[in-house]
Amino acid sequence: MELGLHDLTGFDGRCDAIYFASIDEGQTVEPPPNVSEPLADWRREVLGLTEAPIARTGYDLVVVGGGYAGMGAAISAARMGCKVALIQDRPVLGGNGSSEVRVWAMGNIRRGRYPHLGEIIEEFADKATKSPGRAEEFGDEQKEAIVRAEKNIDLFLNHHAFACENENGKLISVQTFDTRTSQHSEFFGKLFCDCTGHETVGILAEADWEMEPKDRMGMSNMWTWAEVDQVTDFPKTPWALELQMADFPYPRDHHGQWFWESGFNKNAVADAEGIRDHNLRAVYGAFNAMKNNDGAEKHRNAVLTWVAFIGGPRESRRLLGDVILSQEDVITKREFDDGCVPSTWSIDLHYPKKQYAEKFPDNPFISIAIHDRRIDREYGYPVPYRCFYSRNVDNLFMAGRNIGVTHQALGTTRVMKTCGMMGEVVGRAANICVKHACQPRDVYETHIEELIELLKLPGTTRHKSVGGSDTVDANAVSAIKTHDASSGKLEYSSQSK
Ligand SMILES: Cc1cc2nc3c(=O)[nH]c(=O)nc-3n(C[C@H](O)[C@H](O)[C@H](O)COP(=O)(O)OP(=O)(O)OC[C@H]3O[C@@H](n4cnc5c(N)ncnc54)[C@H](O)[C@@H]3O)c2cc1C
Predict the structure, then answer these.
(1) Coiled-coil intervals in this record (predicted)?
(2) Residue 336 shares a structural domain with residue 361
(3) pLDDT per residue over 364-411, tens digit each?
(4) What's the confidence (pLDDT) of residue 4?
(5) pLDDT tens digits along 276-300
(6) Which residue among 4, 40, 76, 395 has its CA within the 20 to 30 Å range from the CA of 320?
(7) Where in the sequence is the domain holding 175, given as residue range(s)?
(8) Residue 232 contacts by C-beta under 8 Å, 6 or more apart in sequence?
(9) How many structural domains are present in the chain?
(10) Are 315 and 217 within 8 A, CB to CB?
(11) For the chain, how big is the Rg over CA atoms in Å?
(12) Do residue 5 and residue 97 come from a single domain?
């Protein structure tokens, strides 16, 4: 057997496919075509894939992206009687909150105008003790089990959305490929929700969008290390950044935290792989400094225990809704009649930390967070519903970090429990769209009272069908926080409705 590998090199190398062919001595094997279309045909043939994508039909809502926002949207819509496809391009759910990236979920829930919002998120949110913590703390299996328990959700893990069909300002379908088999599928739905964080579906559907032209927040790859009983070696890393101990903050408590962040002025989508590689070169360069350079004496027993191989993105493109929320709106507590999701995080924006930026001015890899704390952390600023649908693609919702906000407002809305609650609202709005055969904008313009009623329901409420009545899990007793407008105080109450 001869193994034909060409150019399988590169830092933390990745390759799309390896073709094994068995040949007898003296024989040669025809290499795969090296031109895209014949190569695609060849792949289909050898992998036994269908020529046309598999049509997946009958969905009320197609949710793309299985982070907190996507899970919130899918579960909420399913419980409201909608038939949902949840498409996620990783083998696990949770996005940045999965064991692959290990960011702990922040943002206060169950408060403000609709204090039941957040109850769905609470069912699957991590209780991690550190960020990054241990893999188990992020509960990948629990997240998947909760989604699979919803009979109205078809979950498609390892499915990457890459194309879509639109007609007259409406999305008709989204196409995916299976990252393990390369099989293409086409998902048809009445409504779609972009929860990719990068707004991939919106871009493909020609939705209006924007991206901060420069000085965006970057992408992080967190890491952990430990000390063992014996002296250990670590190979020199000539391909990593050449670092000494003064070039990075000491990874205290055995972990490299959120501020191992780069890509501030790189394209967060097109250069995503390059940003990740730069982060990895920084992490390995730092550990090389600890083991082989001026940190060696103090780290003889140190071992590198985990490095996130998936980059954790913070900011990329944002879809434009009928409302584009600004910092000014949040700080001045501008009233919107459709304000709903309580945003309690400060306006937290990241910049390269000057102290460490000098050696690598082109792409600094350590950040600092600047907080504008003029946020009501208890009650929360109610983010309007109109930030959660596209202003020009009629049947497109969005939830998560790609909603209709400015760069500054993203500083408060982007934490995961807040993103998850946006999904919960989208799920409820989807029920109204299906029931009245209308679009997300009509929910605000014509059916806002109905949305308000749905937002008051506990997270465990289920509708047998879209038009059906409520049934609430009788055991669902939630300690919720309500806001007493007269005293301005928060009160806890037990509710079982
Ligand atoms: C290092 C770091 C630290 C942070 N600190 C905190 C913190 O302490 N607490 C907190 O709450 N937030 C924190 N954040 C912010 C928070 O993680 C993000 O804003 C949040 O994850 C956004 O949620 P989301 O669901 O919109 O997107 P994501 O979590 O990014 O999830 C989107 C999902 O969609 C999938 N996807 C993307 N494209 C496609 C496609 N084409 N097809 C199919 N699937 C696709 C992705 O794989 C991903 O799983 C931090 C972020 C980082 C990177």
Answers:
(1) none
(2) no
(3) 999 999 999 999 999 999 999 999 999 999 999 999 999 999 999 999
(4) 44
(5) 999 999 999 999 999 999 999 999 9
(6) 76
(7) 54-212+318-344+379-495
(8) 300, 301, 302, 303
(9) 3
(10) yes
(11) 24
(12) no
